[in-house]
Amino acid sequence: MPECAVVLLSGGLDSTTAAALARREGWRLYGLTLRYGQVHAHEIDAARRVAAALGFERHIELDVDLRAFGGSALTGDGEVPTDRPLDSSEIPATYVPARNTVFLALALAWAETLSAARIVIGVNALDYSGYPDCRPEYIAAFEYVASLATRRAIQGHPIRIWAPLQQLTKAGIIRIGLELGVDYGLTHSCYAPGPDGRPCARCDSCRLRARGFAEAGVADPLLSPTG
Hints:
By secondary structure, the protein is α/β, with parallel strands linked by helices. It has helices at 13-24, 42-53, 99-114, 136-149, 151-154, 170-179, 204-216; strands at 4-8, 28-35, 58-63, 118-120, 160-162.
């Protein structure tokens, strides 16, 4: 039987593409979606749609309310910035302190329980908003922690942190996803959507997504008349 992989599934473009790549390699997919106190639930709905479309074996939605700490516009602490320079080196207000560390630790716990050999995460080091926990050196460091902190690793079966999109542009990610048959109309990227879930088109995530689709030369299904 194929081995299983725990996928950190946000419902966004990147995590969906990473999941599709893992499925192409024959992994059985187990999705972990975190309700971390984000100010809207549209991405949770998107994660459910993606998990169903990609045939996940199981999809867990876990509550870890980071609003108790604050420190991010995504958890309601301040306004989501709009129209920022996309290549700015400044860490934006949408950075959630230690979010990927918290998420990966929870995924690691489930991966051990499942005897999974891989954790899949859709972080990207090229077209991203400057978050420190998306960098390749961070992913490598967490994998090292996992090699020290898990029974599986001590017994000779380390859990790998697989981040297949790290060195891809957003356009490159979209092209790969389309080759895999990903329906990006199921996904959600916006940090500040309207009540109906329509993207704001002005936050970092919307603008990076728009640039990716433009550079890939295809239309974003979320922005089509029927999207």
